Model the fold of this input.
Amino acid sequence: MIPRWLLEADRRGLPATEVAVLVVGSGVAGLSTALELPPELPVLLATKARLASSATRYAQGGIAAVLAADDSPGDHWADTMTAGAGLCDPEAVRVLVSEGAAAVRRLQRLGASFDLEGGRLALTIEGGHSRRRIVHAGGDATGAEVERALAGAVRSAPNVTIAERTFLVDLVTEGGEATGAVLWSAGDAGGPRLVRAGAVVLASGGAGQLYASTTNPALSTGDGIAAALRAGATLADLEFVQFHPTALHLDSDPRPLISEAMRGEGAVLRDQRGAEVMAGVHPRGDLAPRDVVTRGMAARMAELGVDHLFLDATGVPAARLELRFPTILARCRAAGVEPTRDWIPVSPAAHYLMGGVLTDLDGRSSLPGLYAVGEAACTGVHGANRLASNSLLEGLVFAARIARAIPAAVPGRWSDAGTPAGEPFPLAQAAPDQRARDSRVAAGGGDRRIDGVRGQLRRLMTGRAGVLRSHDGLAAAAAGIIGLSGRLESVTAAGGRERWEVANLLQIGAALTRLAANREESRGAHSRSDHPEPVEAWRLRQVVTRRPDGGLDQGTIEVPAPEEARR
Ligand SMILES: Cc1cc2nc3c(=O)[nH]c(=O)nc-3n(C[C@H](O)[C@H](O)[C@H](O)COP(=O)(O)OP(=O)(O)OC[C@H]3O[C@@H](n4cnc5c(N)ncnc54)[C@H](O)[C@@H]3O)c2cc1C
Done:
């Protein structure tokens, strides 16, 4: 699917440049990594849209961190472990919760302005948390504020070159190490670029676009995860996809999210008859972990034969709603719903990918030279189900750790502040015959057949590999993906961003359905109608790698016992 000539770009004399570190993606994870790296290391930050385009900027509820006097890392650890349903890596969670407060303070020092109450950080609560520990900004516009603060700081970092509208096509490996990437820049001086790097950091986000109904923006197509798979890195936990219970029930892409924090402030899920959906389902009721609420809703919707339920926020004082949720209120009003008076129609939507590129606690993947952070990574902190507001936190905490680990790992020539070798980025125009080929490749985008494959894949995944799964459904999804991959191959256009994105989604979809079919139990976000209970023997994480012939090899890794890590 990736044109062979592109992958052989270096041999064909493409202009090449070198940087110490290539960071792919400009959400919380990529921006934080670029910023935290030592200023003497030249960094290229490549991002496929504008700098501020990311899932990060849609984040509403906030960032979970231990900041209150009545809270402790142990409590945050316990809540995260409980949500993760036995599959969290206890040590990774310990790192997350113990380094979280410092990460929030760093953001404040960069100028991020969080909401205050009585002069102190205002803290709210979301599903699965036993304490009020979630900081937020602009009421429900936390991600936008985080993105604003980080992007501003990165723009003024002299060692960081920003390449917008620059797409990671594939990673380059030599001798079993990641040594760079083929990037594709849009625009007049655009075309393929070969970037050699001492370290490559994938911060390219999740893959919510695998599903027809998602809160994720159009750019969440799992490009970095798929590129890592093709390059030989190990992926983990891909079968765990979190569905957010309360997306506004609209036929839009993405679906606007109604933050869990609204339930934290007292809103209640109701069915068409007015009955409370979560009453008697879980001791924490509307604030049960997300997978529990999503399943509770799915069961009620099936029972009543309806495609949505309601969130009743009319019991929350109107002034409080206006203060805390200005963005959500505006979106509801645009759809003709007045939350201070009306129940809000809601239904679950794909929201977060717990799996990704398997990393250690410093973001190293199994492929030397390749790091991953944020939603593209699988550090083990989320297990089978992410605790609300732990993902911005994960991006911040692990970006700082990667930035501390990389200087010792990049080749010595960078340690004394070298100038980038080769040409500066963006590189000079390619030769005329190269440009002709490039424009044919770029023209591959916008093809209706490619859009058709993307749409069919998304419907297939929603119907067969979504909230409720079964052996037969997953087998149908796997077969469908093979058929759709064939159809994509037959589209004659050579490439283009749209085509590469669909190819990436198909590759992740194939690995995801494989792991979901193997896991014959229900755990966390993975629910099987044919295996409805958790099975102790499945308290294992699944990993997957790609063989040189394109097939997938799968395996399992043990989850350390929680007691060992807590000591
Ligand atoms: C609506 C919504 C609300 C949320 N609310 C919260 C919340 O309140 N709290 C919380 O903790 N989490 C929340 N989340 C989850 C959280 O926002 C994400 O998990 C997190 O922001 C991911 O950050 P990231 O940097 O890993 O990826 P992203 O923010 O998705 O950034 C990925 C970046 O990579 C770039 N990219 C992707 N592919 C390529 C490519 N091929 N080449 C070059 N660049 C590429 C993208 O353009 C983008 O800049 C929410 C998510 C959504 C969608």
In short: The chain has 17 helices and 23 strands. The CA atoms of residues 360 and 379 lie 6 Å apart.
